[in-house]
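Deliverable D4.2, example record:
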Amino acid sequence: MSALSATFLPTLVRRERASLAATLAAPFIALSVTTVLNLGLYVLMGRNPVDVFYAMLLEPFLSWASFSEVLLKAGPLLLIAQGLAIGFRAKVFNIGAEGQFILGAIFASAIPIWFPEATGQWIWPLMLILGVLGGALWASLTAFWRVRLNANEILVSLMLSLVAAQLLNYLLLGPWKDPNGFNFPQSVMFQYDAMVPILISGTRVNVSLLITIALSLAAWVFMQKSFAGYKLQVGGLAPRAAGYAGFKESRAIWLSLLIGGCAAGLAGAAEVAGPLGQLQRSISTGYGYSAIIVAYLGGLHPIGIVVSALFMAALYIGGDNAMVSANLPIAAVRVFQGSLLLAYLVAIAFARYRFEWRRAAYRGQP
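Output generated by the structure prediction step:
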């Protein structure tokens, strides 16, 4: 004989309006929780947590030399994250920025590798343009499969990143390998005119930082002031309403992925034409994946992303410092970055949702 029983279960219910204070506090709460959790990890590893946090979080800001390196690292992170955030807000999840970054670097490197004797101030701007085209081309493959066959853009873009890494390996171990490079997988060094001009004397910070700042402003205008940006946001928040209004989903997918690809490709071009000065396998340093953390930590808002990019760049530089001064393994630095994203997602979820106890009926045996 069955009986009707009842119980109360906690259910996440979306708030009618997310608290602005809670939304702004979410990154700081996430940072505090992450710091406490990782402090325990460092103690278990036998490291002095004071030394680790000093090297990781404070030292990057204590000298101009260190801070200039933070600015250098922040450039590609900021640029890629701004492009990804536009797609994320439209619910188009481009996880393949790493591959688009690599293709941008490859396309840009074609000029100094094929024409090593070329001179003129036209070279580095053309390299940046080619980088944009390379990133857009790689992103268009994901857009094509998503629109034509409804393939999941997360999986397609991620798998294409692995293909891009193998293409880079092929070029540097084959046709583009420097014959005088002592068998290292790298291209020839680029000529002077193929390098982006230095912006701040005595540092490695170059003009690409100004381009990144200008594009960050353009991203804000696009998302906050333009009708095209409004359509993307409506498509992400209310797909059915967007469909009734005549906003095409396919156009939003193409636009979102191409913007992300262009930004990542430009970042890749600026990297080989800037601090590296040649195409190397180390060009693939995880910028495309770290930019996802930057985008979400900044709340997918252009201004917030600027702040989170500086913070993540400081973690990069501080992590290098901690590996030297506190004997911290690189894996621990990556754990800090990953746990920071996880803590932020939990914090922002509670800013947008609340627990509500709801009565759930079910049939069971008495």
